[in-house]
Specification:
Blueprint lengths: L1 E2 L5 E7 L2 E9 L7 H11 L8 E6 L3 E7 L4 E2 L9 H18 L28 E4 L8 E3 L5 E4 L6 E4 H16 L4 H8 L5 H11 L7
Antiparallel strand pairs: 1-2, 2-3, 3-5, 4-5, 6-8, 7-10, 8-9
Length: 214
């Protein structure tokens, strides 16, 4: 299903009891911590639809995580790729539901922009509103059901408490990569918030240079 820049693979398994997904990361230094993601999924699953962790393991070659499939298709697959208005609205509303559902005070994980800050770059802006951030809120990480609404979220390896604009800045940016220009305000409308140019610019700069595809 997927090959990432760190050499990790994602496989879909079709079984008689339903779909499963396996994430695998090669042994050695990697920016992706599957054990950490498993911890985050287990915690978040009590509050919002995310993949249920079935098994976690490792050997000399790498580490793997087996999860149960959620209903829906990712927001950049068909038919949603051809229906950007529906997809973008679902992403915005789904992100708002995600932020509203996860309890900040109970979350044991943190997403701190200071970790990515270096001298000579703009200091982090004040936090608009703390939420439990998804941490990688690109369009493919939102699943959409047959009714056109968000049915869950995947890839929660960076989940943690932070400013909601850390997610909103990337979610809106991702609409440009995946659907073309002109969809950012629709996502913000669906979320229920006005644009914030300062925080959007900061979190996009922190994220890094714009990828050609996501």
């Amino acid at each position: 299903m997927w090959l990432n820049e760190a050499g990790g693979l994602t496989f879909e398994l079709v079984t008689s009891t339903g779909g499963r997904f396996v994430k695998w990361m090669p042994a050695g230094d990697s920016p992706i911590d599957l054990a950490g993601e498993a911890d985050r999924l287990r915690w978040a699953s009590a509050f919002t639809p995310v993949p249920r962790v079935l098994e976690l393991g490792s050997d000399d070659d790498g580490t793997w995580m087996l999860t149960e499939a959620l209903t829906g298709e990712n927001a950049v697959s068909e038919p949603w790729k051809s229906r950007p208005a529906v997809a973008v609205a679902a992403i915005g509303a789904g992100l708002r539901a995600f932020h509203d559902a996860l309890p900040v005070t109970d979350c044991p994980f943190r997403w701190q922009p200071e970790e990515g800050w270096t001298p000579g770059t703009p200091a982090p802006p004040t936090i608009d509103e703390p939420v439990v951030c998804h941490g990688d809120s690109c369009a493919p990480n939102t699943l959409i059901g047959a009714d056109g609404r968000c049915s869950g979220h995947v890839d929660l390896g960076a989940l943690g408490v932070g400013d909601r604009w850390a997610d909103l800045a990337i979610a809106t940016w991702s609409t440009v990569w995946n659907y073309g220009p002109g969809w950012e305000n629709l996502l913000l409308d669906a979320y229920g918030i006005e644009p914030d140019a300062e925080r959007t610019a900061y979190y996009r700069t922190l994220w890094g240079s714009e990828p050609t595809s996501v």
